[in-house]
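Quick one - first record:
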Amino acid sequence: MTSERGDYELAAGRDPKSIIETMEKQVWDGDDLPHARMKRGCPTGAAMPLCWSHAEYVSLVRSRHDGICFYRVEPAYQRYVVNPVESQYEIWSLRHPLRRMSRGKILRIILAAEATIVWLADNWPGTNQSQTIHQSELDLWFADFPTAD
């Protein structure tokens, strides 16, 4: 998780250098073995077991150099951070039942099967009916209800 913390620090505008310096490296922690060229506290020379951690180390060093996280997906960053678009919908489904919603949004009710939705407004003077619309790509049914501004 050290590398992820470094990415977090960088994204927060802080220098991850101290994180990079604390990332563990593969070192020999036993008694010296001169015949195997292993000395306590020194690298073992065996990179394979820690390829993943080495890759994380390299990516964090690269991220620090570039000033942005190496793994950042630019289209997603632009869409959700730089130019966020607020949805005009509030979604209700059996798995996500809303308790409240913002005024002026469109309430979209999503169901697994075709249905007629009967609804009331203005303190019960009458009922309204809305048919659900099939969305074939996702195989679901939905109906939209505008709310007052």
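second record:
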Amino acid sequence: MQLGLGYQWQSGQMSYTAMLGHERTQQAWYGVPQVSLNGTPEEIWDWAANSYEYGYGADSTRILDLISRGRQHNYYRYVDQVDDYRQDHHQIHASQRWGAWDFGATVHYTAGGGYYEQYREADDLSLYGAGDLGLADTTISSGDVIRRRWLGNDFYGALIQGTRKWSSTALQFGAGSFRYVGDHFGQPIWMQYGASQLSPQHRYYDNRGEKTDRYGFVGLDRDVFGGDVRVRVEAQWRQVGYQVHGTDNDLRVLDVDTVMAFLNPKVGADWLINDQNRAFISVAQASREPVRTDYIDRATSAYPLPEHLTDVELGWEHSTSTWSIQAVAFYMRYANQLVLTGALNDTGSPIRQNVDRSYRAGLEWTQEWRPFNGFKWYGTTTLALNRIEAFDEVLFDYAEGFDPVVSVAHEGTAISFSPGFTASSVASWEFWNRISSEGLGSTASVEWSFRHVARQFLDNTSSESRSLPAYAVHDARLRWMKHRSNAGHIGVSLFLRNLLNAQYSANGWTYSYLYGGLDAMSTEVYVYPQAGRNGLVSVELTF
């Protein structure tokens, strides 16, 4: 639900917006084992025999479902394995002009709360604070549990910004301050054994995380050489603080207390060569802090480091009445980049690690063609080399008598989830236009879109066995719109998705571990198959 109110006066305006939302979503973040896409039933049974850690093992019901349903298999069988979450947004925006100065301000507050409900098989009772049970000649120390992992959060802050323009100079400045408070806790709502030992509101883990974020920026544009060249200089200062205290889901004690400060400068120039050509260049430095999961899911005792980027871009653009072309060459040099390891934590969030030195370099090419009124074609292509110069893969060995943490050195590998080639294309044609001079009437159009994504590696080892194959997808849309006299319209759209029924996976995860040294490595690869050919109809009605 959304509500908006506004008030406007001669030199400014103010508005209030409220957005209230609630979602309840079945979980499938486990994905499906990659072996199930092309493997024979015998290969799937063999795989399952070595996958006890992930709950298949000798579970014949789950394995048979995997074999029969394949791409549509869901690891979870509990009907209420859901995310249930509410979030309410409140925002006030104001702007005011005083002479040649323009000012704006925003205050906001977001409140959220909800839980992830899980069915757990054979969990230790001690995890939830319950003791062993003695029944006749048997001691029970584990049992099935249904638990809810709660998150309650508040996010609020304010920002201001201003601009001032002169004949050949423009000044922009601003500042903001934000605070986030998140309470994370877990409650068992049903236990096969031991529930009588706990209070109904018992929390088996409980922690609070707080993040503060403050920034200030200033930017200056200056026209030189008769206005043909515009030079821009800007700088941003940020200070980010984290505090996390309490216990986590696995009963680890969390104790994070850190503050980081960043200075992010940028300089660039835009050269208007003539009416049809322009060139531009920019050099920027940027820094980004780790997120909460980087701290609590880190593989070592050391805090994750913020990542730093130096970005150099050089571009050219050519435009005519029917064509526009833009080419941008880029080089992005990272220090301590936080890259995805390919693994997930126990709520489905990706795990990241720092790598000392890495880079992205490539070329982006976009073009648009408008040969006649009503028809437009747009395409974009990116070629990139995404590389980690050197990093250590961290593996855990679960066998007794072996080093529990093993590092494997890699050099010159591809950055995870970073395809070296992507392309997209959209062609649209408005073949019917019966709009009168008063703006009344109807239009109809058809659109065809295409996207191609090259192979992506799920981790940073450049192993094809831990990768997503390249894929290409075609979509189509047919749209009709009727404009009415009250300034509203009626619109009907027919969408045909994945028109050629491509069988592909757009995401996935992987995790490797040892059980007795490097010669006894096991690697799990799970993917998220996307829907085959499908369609939908949407209806729009405005007043």
